[in-house]
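Hi P.,

Sorry for the delay on this. The queue was packed all week, but I finally got your sequence through. Input first:
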Amino acid sequence: ECAPYLKGTENVILNMISKGLAANQKNNGIKLAAVKALTYSLELAEPNFKRPKEKQLIFTMIFNASTCSDERVREAGISCLVEVASKYYDQMGPFMRQIFEITKKAICSDSEEAGKMGIEFWSTVAETEADLKWSHQEAEESGMTPPDQKSCNFTQAAISSLIPSLWSCLSKQNEDVDDEEWNLASAAGCCLTKMSEVAGDSVVKMVLPLVEGNIRNKDWRVRDAATTAFATMLNGPTKEKLIPLVQRAFPVILEHVKDSNDVVKHTAAWTIGRICEEIPEVITPKVLPHLMRTLIMAMTFSSKVASKACYAVRNLADALDQNDSDEPSNPLTKYFYDLMKSLLDASNREDADQGLMASAYECIASLIHTAGKDSYETIKKLIPHMLKRLEMSVNKSKNNSDTNNVNIQAYICGTLVVCIRKLPVSILGSFMDTFMLAFLEVLKCGTSVCHEEALLGVTEVVRKTKDKCMRYMKAFTPLLLKSLNNVLEVRVCGIAIGLAGDIVEAVGSKIKPIADNLVQHFLNLLQSADLMRDVKPRVIHAIGGMALALGKDFQRYLRHVMGMLQKMALYKFEDPDEDDIEFMNQLRESLLETYTSIFAGLSDENAQNLFRPYVDSVWQLICVVGKDEDTEDSVLISAVSLVGDIAKGFGSQATGLVSQTAIQELLHKSRRHSNSKVQERAQWAQDECQKATRH
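Then the structure:
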């Protein structure tokens, strides 16, 4: 965004730029500087785009640059057009004929950079129109008001003329497989995919002839281009249109996975993965055996191809998982053991790069997550193997800090997390201590990457062992506290906060031996200026869980905790944006729910009287929530519920509190709220208030 102090200077800046891009400007260095300055100034020029003559001048400057004989200026000019498409899409209509000619010429030119910029322009336009298409469809389906902005249909008007040029670019691949390389072929594939989303069924008649006529071509570049072109269609047309086409092409693409050329193999395996993701209906019982044999074989090919084979299996496993319940079996059960063996071998290859290792372990995790009960024994047999791998990796880390090794630990921990989550305690029981010891070792010597996964592993152990997890706390507590202190690693700290809450919930009042340390760390986190604000509501929720677990014994922390919560309740913004409003709702909801938990926990032995000195500040927060127009329904429910809890707990002593005008207005408004859950809680709270006033 432009700096505020530049507002109002746009005319001066654009006048200076226009001199650098005038038709009579001979110095290409000045032209290059001017068009770059124009690109940087587009945000500032919003008022000028609303005035026809000035908009005409801006586009003339861009066209002068985009047609310059100097390659650098020409590329910068087309880059400026990309920014215009992003920022001023609906202002381009009168100029699209000229823009089309410029971008098409760039795509067909000898300059790869200019070609990529020309393609990027149409990718940006297609992405904008795809977003508008889905927004209008969603609004229509949900009965909501559609967005004001409408599509100008630039993509539909241009696609048939652009496809031959994009097709030509698809065959300009590199000799070697490189997922990270952004060249003309990858840019064209991305653009066609986005255009397909806009064009829908109509793209088939334009692309399919190119695919059918070239997918068996002797030239590997043409075969690969045809396979890529086919993959680009999978996002746009309806399934009714696609299914017969995919069924026809599938055997050919599957054979391409075994092609003599690695680039073709790679593209074919990726395309199979896209089919498994988008149209799994074509993977019938008749097709599945050949598909499994081919993908298992592909896992022994080059690491790039093997990675895409893993990607395809993972997508198929995810597609077959129609619900979260544990089914007795699924179509992959027959291949489960062979897939696991091949994936483990692939992940442990000497030439395995990060891409292959990540794909293999992600695929293993998906297969475990979606496995039927008849695969449980195979998963159980996998666990000792994974634990042994983890032990070897941890021992290796003690001698050196190889990044590759650290990532392996994260992958293995992630796999073990899925195993623990999937299998019942009756199968896992004998492994629990071993799991915990393994995760502790990772936390002692690893880095934040694997600490996240190890903490998630401990979380699953806690959830499975429930209150029996206290036997691990002596060894684990120092590592948990260390993770809670790691405020600069937001993910690690956030997971540790959630884990602390899970431990408290699992063990209840048995948490007492480590409660002092945990509460102190929670308070430190709330005071920390280094901790991201979005994490703090989670800390407050964790305090609420501690209050419920300790009951009356929480009173030893009451003064310090309530003082900190009162400070947090004062948080406010002068001119909040959407993110600020969302944060305030999360913060207030966590405060209200924690106040509720503290009050409920103090219910024994008339301990609620200890809460009385803090009621005024709690009431202030409830009143603020009631008056704030940006308050979300869930926060409102928490507020009226707390009013009812206090009225019920204090009885007649709450008469003065619940009779306050602001509280009565809150209850009155909430009982007439459009959300039935808000209405129900408000009515219950009102009933409790009336009982209190009658005592």
